[in-house]
């Protein structure tokens, strides 16, 4: 795999600083039951990195000692961590809103019986990956059979009340482009998704989030192999919107890796660009509190143009 950090590190991206911490995004491990083309984590079924029970307890203590509004669980497939349910239940008991970045097919895997019901009982917000409503496009990006398993999972979630009005169970879908181009209008694409999924399968959901593919890990390596890395970076830089700087996710989010070390965002985590704090090369979750983060400079590189291009991109979808 081609390393893209040397191509990104020398950057003219503007200086930005952290504001009040609202969301703790925790990567529970890089193992996944899928191996997607666009994956910036390079997750796959053979990855061994998984958060330990000790570090899970570090996360719980951080939530207890800091006024965090939301716990955003990601991976890999975060549900494959054996301590996933313990962390979810602990956060919910504290009144923290829990979000699960779910690939949908995990709900159909052997050994995951009852997972959907657990998520519903704890009112976990599900942000589910579905890069298209066309089977051929989804399977081309995520693997054969993924589309049908995803539809099966969405129907299961709808049956539990997810995505249905006034149920209190939020189901959002996430779109990634299938190639080196920017996402279309989030609002228009959401309308198309709702129409197609409702007419063809009777599926309902709350919102659609569009996320720009980052030129790192598996997707970035493919760009280098195809000789299109520079073209893609020129596309991102050419679509830069200064207004997006005010709402990029790294200003109010803290990313935690599977060992408990801190980053400004999940993308920086994958590039091994740690949070800038103190004299140590890395800062652990146990070594800091939320108040100390405000005003810190955010570590930037050229991949940050992916978040500010066009309508903007974050874990919560478009910024504009």
Alpha-beta content class: alpha/beta
Overall domain count: 1
Mean pLDDT: 91
**CATH topology call:** TIM Barrel
Our count of helices gives: 12
Please count the beta strands (DSSP E, at least 2 residues each). 8
The percentage of residues in β strands lies in 5-15%
**Assembly state (oligomeric):** single chain
Order of helices and strands: HEHEHEHEHHEHEHHEEHHH
Rg, Å, rounded = 19 Å
Summarize the amount of helix as a percent range. 25-40%
**Based on the structure given, which CATH architecture is correct?**
Alpha-Beta Barrel
Structure explained in plain terms:
The protein is α/β, with parallel strands linked by helices. The protein has one domain: Aldolase class I (TIM Barrel, Alpha-Beta Barrel). It is 33% helix and 11% strand. It contains 12 helices and 8 strands. Helix 3 links the parallel strand 2 and strand 3. It starts with a helix and ends in a 12-residue tail after the last helix. The relative contact order is 0.19. The mean pLDDT is 91.
What does the secondary structure layout of this molecule look like, with pairings?
Layout: H1 5-8, E1 23-27, H2 53-65, E2 70-74, H3 84-93, E3 97-102, H4 115-121, E4 125-129, H5 135-142, H6 146-160, E5 171-175, H7 186-201, E6 208-210, H8 217-226, H9 229-238, E7 253-256, E8 262-263, H10 266-271, H11 290-293, H12 305-308
Parallel strand pairs: 1-2, 1-7, 2-3, 3-4, 4-5, 5-6
Antiparallel strand pairs: 7-8
Task: Give me some keywords for this one.
320 residues; 8 strands; 12 helices; single chain; 33% helix; TIM Barrel; alpha/beta; 11% strand; 8-stranded mixed sheet
């Amino acid at each position: 795999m081609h390393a893209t950090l040397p191509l990104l590190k020398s950057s003219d991206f503007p200086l930005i600083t952290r504001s009040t911490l609202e969301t703790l995004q925790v990567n529970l491990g890089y193992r996944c039951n899928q191996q997607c083309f666009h994956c910036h984590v390079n997750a796959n079924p053979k990855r061994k990195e998984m958060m330990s029970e000790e570090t899970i307890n570090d996360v719980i203590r951080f939530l207890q000692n800091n006024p965090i509004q939301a716990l955003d669980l990601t991976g890999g497939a975060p549900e494959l961590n054996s301590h996933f349910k313990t962390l979810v239940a602990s956060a919910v008991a504290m009144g923290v809103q829990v979000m699960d970045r779910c690939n949908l097919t995990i709900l159909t895997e052997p050994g995951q019986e009852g997972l959907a019901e657990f998520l519903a009982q704890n009112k976990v917000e599900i942000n589910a990956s579905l890069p298209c409503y066309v089977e051929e496009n989804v399977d081309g990006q995520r693997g054969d059979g993924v589309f049908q398993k995803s539809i099966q999972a969405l129907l299961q979630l709808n049956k539990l009340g997810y995505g249905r009005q006034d149920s209190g169970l939020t189901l959002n879908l996430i779109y990634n482009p299938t190639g080196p181009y920017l996402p279309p209008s989030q609002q228009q694409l959401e309308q198309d998704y709702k129409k197609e999924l409702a007419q063809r399968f009777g599926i309902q959901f709350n919102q659609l989030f569009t996320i720009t593919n980052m030129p790192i890990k598996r997707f970035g390596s493919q760009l280098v192999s195809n000789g299109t890395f520079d073209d893609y970076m020129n596309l991102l830089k050419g679509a830069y919107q200064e207004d997006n700087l005010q709402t990029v996710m790294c200003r109010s989010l803290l990313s935690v890796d599977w060992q408990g070390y801190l980053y400004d965002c999940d993308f920086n985590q994958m590039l091994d660009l740690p949070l800038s704090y103190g004299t140590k090369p890395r800062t652990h979750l146990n070594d800091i509190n939320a108040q100390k983060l405000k005003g810190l400079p955010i570590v930037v590189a050229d991949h940050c143009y992916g978040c500010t291009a066009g309508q903007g991109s974050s874990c919560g979808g478009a910024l504009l």
